[in-house]
Design goal:
This protein has 13 helices and 40 strands. With about 700 residues, the chain is α/β, with parallel strands linked by helices. The chain has five domains: about 110 residues, no CATH class; about 160 residues, Rossmann fold (3-Layer(aba) Sandwich); about 100 residues, Immunoglobulin-like, CATH 2.60.40; about 230 residues, Class I glutamine amidotransferase (GATase) domain (Rossmann fold, 3-Layer(aba) Sandwich), CATH 3.40.50.880; about 70 residues, Immunoglobulin-like (Sandwich), CATH 2.60.40. Strand 38 and strand 39 form a beta hairpin.
């Protein structure tokens, strides 16, 4: 819009100080004529100017006016509209209750009213959800202000619940900031705040969670609330906890891997939402330092292989015995001259047997060192949850085989029996170990580097072994095979425990890189960890994990048949079904997991749980609509705070002059700045020289004639 403004301006011909000096000289010169004392006929004295003095004063005044050069100035301006910002909060906390509808209705009403106001441009700024950074409202305002000239800023209107997490201590804003909040003042909210939660716990030991149930916005604090606790979707445990005070929850880690604990506080009457009444904690169960007993039946080339493997793991406490002097060896050396110690049979296999996590027999033969009662103790140890690993040599197919003892009841394979069994059970020929079709799906042997193709054709690229024991597998899973397809490694579950049987003592050749070597360390590590029930090596398992907002469900099975349907239950109870083709014994399902809480996945036989934390924990920490954080800014800028859920509803918009009130009953104001651009200026002299000169001369002549009379 163009405007034309007119006014009188002065453009002096001489400097101001010179004009002032001349004026002082003229007044001094005219003062005697202007202030003259005369005596009247009655003899009275009075002041009267001399004849022609006023005309002389008028002549000088006209001269000074001409030197001041008065002009009639006419200015043409183009006014620029003011700009106001409408900031709309779209973070997750504005989606609770009825806030989304109220904010959207207010946005539409304000935009419609702003269009009716002249010389005003309303710009809408969206504040998106910021992940785990809370509500970044002020950052959005600053980005918008960077594109607005401050001389045109009329004000800022914010549609938000007031939960802002990036407000600086002293915001720089020189225009009114108006805050419009959904709902009504005085909202209350209950939440669970986790004070401390361990990231991991030792299997078999207790861990402790520290939580607080808090009531926000309540006029009265205290009392108690019921807290429901579930572990891995099990039966709920209900405890009464004091509100506002720290509460400790203790439980025992029963297994390795993640343990998901869900806590839910009862809903408070009148609270705005119960989203933050629930908290989920995932605690990873790990084993303490593993105690391993390694018994080598005799010194041999592969003995150091086991020792190096177990000693290389800092989490393993190894107890190693090597039988150097079997009972049948009698060279009449007096016992007091021997530097060897006696094999502590009773201490190891009766007193402290249960303290070991894994027992390894390496080429151990039954030569009377272990009486049947101790071998029976080992078998019972396995059935009740222990781990046993046997690496056997020629002794396994001979008369001193452990398979012929009470321990043989838990072994998954038996050597040949009868006459000539030792010769029939011992195979000495070059061969390359192969992974069986079942082994290609078993986590102990799947994807071993250099293994034979999973289709079953072709040999492995591993180095050759030269000795194997022939045995008949009667239970368990044969994951590797030797010459002529004979079992080479058999894994079995016995009761609550596990047994691994390696029917060769030549794996040490791989550690020497013989004939190209092989994955000796990785294979032995997997075998040992499988026997000790490490979760990542379970052959029949269903796991679920949530990372970066995505749920990954993985099913592992040795069954070659079609995979069953995976059913996923979200924290809100919604159910999705997935049917995916199995590849190598594995089925993987991936899907978004935006809802916080416990997600459950099942294949009909097993169930897995995963904990999803809130995508924006700062956002749901306080779900009340509250003006406490932004009120200082509204006060400092002269803005107003209004509740959309009150009787007033959406306030009217008005334009206000600078320095005037910017809000009142039922209305909020946007400042009128009057910013403009000058497009043209014209100046017309009011006393040009051709007019000023005759005027001055005329007045001077009149003064001369007046004085000459």
């Amino acid at each position: 819009m163009n405007q034309v403004l007119a006014g009188i301006d002065f453009a002096p011909v001489l400097p101001h100080w010179l004009l002032v000096a001349l004026a002082v000289v003229v007044l001094a010169a005219l003062a005697p004529a202007l202030i003259r004392v005369v005596v009247t006929a009655e003899g009275q004295r009075r002041i009267a100017p001399a004849r022609g003095a006023l005309l002389r004063l008028a002549a000088f005044a006209a001269l000074f006016l001409a030197l001041a050069n008065p002009r009639l100035v006419e200015e043409t301006r183009e006014t620029r509209p003011d700009i106001a910002l409408l900031v709309v909060d779209r973070s997750d906390s504005t989606g609770v209750a009825d806030r989304t509808r109220q904010i959207e209705a207010a946005r539409e009403a304000l935009e419609a009213r702003a269009r009716r106001l002249p010389e005003l441009e309303l710009r809408t700024v969206e504040v998106p959800e910021a992940g785990n950074q809370g509500t970044r409202l002020w950052s959005a305002v600053e980005r918008a202000l960077a594109e607005v000239p401050r001389a045109r800023l009329a004000g800022v209107i914010a549609l938000t619940d007031g939960q802002v997490h990036d407000l600086p201590p002293a915001p720089n804003l020189d225009a009114p900031f108006h805050l419009l909040l959904p709902g009504r003042a005085g909202e209350v909210d209950r939440r669970i705040r986790i004070v401390e939660a361990p990231g991991f716990g030792i299997v078999g030991r207790q861990v402790e969670l520290r939580v607080v149930v808090e009531d926000l916005g309540a006029t009265q604090q205290g009392g108690a609330a019921r807290l429901t606790i579930r572990r891995d979707g099990g039966a709920p445990r209900v405890e009464s906890v004091p509100v506002g005070r720290e509460h400790r929850i203790a439980f025992t880690i029963e297994r390795g891997g993640p343990t998901v604990v869900e806590m839910t506080a009862e809903t408070r009457p009148g609270e705005v939402s119960d989203i933050n009444n629930r908290a989920v904690v995932s605690i990873n169960g790990v084993r303490d330092r593993l105690r391993v007993l390694l018994v080598s039946g005799e010194p041999h080339a592969g003995e150091r292989t086991w020792r190096r493997l177990l000693k290389a793991d800092p989490n393993v406490d190894l107890v190693h015995f090597t039988i150097l002097r079997p009972p049948e060896k009698d060279d009449l050396t007096p016992l007091h001259e021997l530097s060897l110690i006696a094999f502590p049979v009773r201490e190891l296999f009766q007193v402290k047997l249960r303290e070991f996590d894994l027992i390894v027999f390496d080429r151990f033969a039954n030569r009377g060192l272990l009486p049947p009662v101790y071998l029976r103790n080992i078998a019972d140890y396995v059935r009740s949850g222990g781990a046993l690993l046997l690496s056997v040599g020629p002794e396994f197919v001979g008369p001193t085989s452990l398979a012929s003892t009470p321990l043989g009841q838990v072994l998954p394979a038996r050597p040949p029996t009868g006459s000539g069994a030792a010769q029939a059970g011992l195979v000495e020929q070059p061969f390359r170990p192969r992974v069986t079709a079942l082994g290609s799906r078993h986590p102990v042997t799947e994807s071993l580097p250099g293994a034979n193709p999973t289709e079953g054709t072709g040999d492995a690229t591993w180095g050759r072994w030269y000795r194997a024991m022939r045995a008949d597998a009667r239970s368990g899973s044969t994951v590797m095979e030797g010459p002529n397809g004979a079992p080479l490694m058999v894994l079995d579950r016995v009761g609550e425990g596990r047994v691994a049987l390696m029917l060769s003592d030549h794996i040490w050749l791989w550690s020497r890189n013989h004939d190209g070597g092989g994955p000796q360390a990785e294979l032995l590590r997997r075998i040992a960890h499988w026997t000790m029930k490490e979760p990542e090596l379970e052959e029949e398992d269903l796991t679920a994990r949530i990372e970066h907002g995505h749920l990954t469900v993985q099913r592992r099975s040795l069954d070659p048949g079609p995979a069953p349907e995976i059913v996923v239950t979200a924290p809100d109870g919604s159910v999705t079904r997935h049917r995916v083709e199995a590849r190598g014994g594995r089925v993987t399902v991936e899907m978004p997991a935006a809802l916080p809480g416990v997600w459950q996945a099942t294949d009909g036989q097993r169930t897995a749980y995963a904990a999803a934390e809130a995508g924006n924990p700062m956002e749901i920490a306080d779900l009340r609509a509250d003006d406490a954080k932004l009120r200082p800014l509204t006060v400092a800028t002269g803005g107003a705070v209004r509740w959309l859920g009150g009787d007033g509803g959406v306030p009217e918009l008005r334009r206000t002059a600078p320095g005037r009130d910017t809000h009142g009953s039922g209305w909020i104001g946007l400042r009128r700045n009057g910013d403009h651009t000058v497009t043209g200026i014209t100046a017309l002299p009011l006393l040009p020289p051709w007019l000023a000169l005759p005027m001055v001369l005329g007045l001077a002549i009149l003064a001369w004639r007046r004085e000459g009379r």
